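An example makes the point: we let one protein speak, the chain in one-letter code, the fold tokenised, and here it is:
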Amino acid sequence: MSIVELWNNEPWVRLGVTIGVALVLAVIIRRLGWVVMRRLARGHAVAADVLRRASAPMEWLIPVLMLMLALRIRPEAPRLLALDLLQHFLLVTLIVVTGWLMVRCISALELAVVMQYPMDRADNLRARRVLTQVRVFSRVSIVLVVLLVSAAILLTFPDARQIGASLLASAGLAGLALGLAAKPVLSNLIAGVQIALTQPIRLDDVVIIENEWGRIEEITGTYVVVKIWDERRLVVPLNWFMENPFQNWTRTNANLIGTVFMWVDYTLPLEPLRAELRRLCEAAPEWDGRVCLLQVTDANERAMQLRALVSSADSPLSWDLRCRVREGMIAFVQANNPQGLPRLRAELESPPLSRSGVDPAPSL
């Protein structure tokens, strides 16, 4: 049998040739497209990185598209279940590869922004603001892509569509359970968008949460990781920041005013102590030169309370400066005015003598 007779009489031969031509065209298109895109991306770091990250899914995307096209235009091929299953498999593969490509592109754009806004600078407020928005939006976008891909795959199955339609029609407990199950995910997604837009927190912000001091280390699509000062990690859901008050010590800038409290006796002179506080601040590398003040803030029947206010550039420096000032002031009082430390006063009186000059006998 000649080739022409095989082509005319055997639909499987025509289908195989069509698939083979489609795969050859896919290889040619992929090679040519890769060369063209590399030339266009030359000199553009962001485009080159996106192209590099998208290369793996693109290796699958073009062949799958060409195979689907070949099966769509198959010339009088027999209608078999195997071909229908192959078409459905290719459709699901196309959806997955498209989602994979979108995730890779989102990650590449996020990395490009991270490279343009380094956080290892002294004044990194703008970098923290931009990186917080980009990372939250990228996490939320990736979650949405995964949800859309999952929904699109389910819609390709007729049985799944019927089940979904019946659940929507029946509503009732199934719909209520689905809504309750999706509530945490949706609330965290909405909270992520709110945090990215309003920015109550940013990466590397210093916060006080649940009486714990730490820095915002990571912001994902569903939770925030806070690095506690002792190297522990506090994991907080995103919607917690929208529903609960917390302290942000670096909301607009990192400058802080620290406090040091002391209880001293009323006999302690304050002017020498003020001069010592000024000397301690000027000698401390942590002091930023803004505030150095000593005041009497409280008094009771035993002693008076002194409060020293000292300023620094950020919270770690503020902690070190407070400890330095506290130790220096205690040492100054101990060395120069030890009587100025808090004391308990008591007055002792002797019992009165009798007219005869003899102590009265104790009563029994």
